[in-house]
Design goal:
- α6 packs across α7.
- Helix content is 59%, strand content 0%.
- It is an all-alpha fold.
- The radius of gyration is 18 Å and the shape is globular.
- It starts with a helix and ends in a 10-residue tail after the last helix.
């Protein structure tokens, strides 16, 4: 019995790995949906999302999410080992206080994994991000991320977020509006980009300063 159970468990793991690999390849070309979007559809809840290529999203939004979440986005290979090591050392000393997810890791989580936090999910994010980074390219990773990120109840992607919160297309977002959207991402249900609290505005101001101080995003240039 145990041997049979182990054999079936191994088969399931192999099948899951093959499915993830197939999806990684498919999402290189096709517009993906997130697992949160699938969950909403499965429970008959609405989803707002209009896919837009990166060329039709204001460059300020990509710059804002990099400044807010992943300053070394153009320099790491999907996993920021420097940041991850610092978080591990900090956790050993004082307990976990922050995450170390790169934009690549967040993107594979959004389109391939489940949303709840766990060591298992984090363990899967790392190898998937290492594969996705060269397979997708930085530009494609950012394009997917900005089209699947949640920016409100049932609101996914930059285009739907820009129209919901600012009444304009994603291509027309200003630097300030991009910073407000980036500042909302840690908790997009409670942090409403179109109606920011004082704390939200302060966070957006920090992101704007980082955007001005940061370097160019050459890795996002069209080939």
């Amino acid at each position: 019995m145990l041997r049979t159970a182990l054999r079936w468990a191994l088969r399931l793991l192999i099948a899951a790995a093959l499915l993830e690999a197939a999806l990684l390849v498919a999402w290189r070309f096709a517009p993906p949906v997130s697992t949160l979007m699938l969950a909403r559809w499965a429970t008959l809840r609405s989803v707002e999302r209009e896919w837009r290529p990166l060329s039709q999203i204001a460059p300020a939004l990509a710059a804002a999410v990099v400044a807010s979440e992943d300053a070394r986005f153009c320099r790491h290979g999907g996993v920021d080992w420097t940041e991850l090591r610092a978080v591990v050392e900090e956790g050993l000393e004082d307990g976990p206080t922050r995450g170390a997810s790169t934009i690549t890791m967040q993107t594979v989580k959004n389109v391939l994994l489940w949303p709840s936090r766990s060591f298992l999910r984090k363990g899967l994010e790392i190898p998937l991000a290492l594969v996705a980074d060269p397979l997708w390219s930085k530009r494609r990773t950012m394009e997917i991320y900005l089209n699947v990120a949640e920016w409100g109840e049932g609101v996914f992607g930059a285009e739907a977020a820009a129209r919901r919160h600012f009444g304009k297309s994603a291509a027309q977002l200003s630097v300030r509006e991009a910073a407000l959207l980036a500042a909302a991402l840690p908790n997009p249900i409670e942090r409403v980009a179109g109606r920011p609290t004082a704390r939200h505005r302060a966070r957006a101001a920090v992101i704007e300063r980082r955007m001005r101080a940061g370097g160019g995003l050459d890795c996002l240039r069209a080939p």
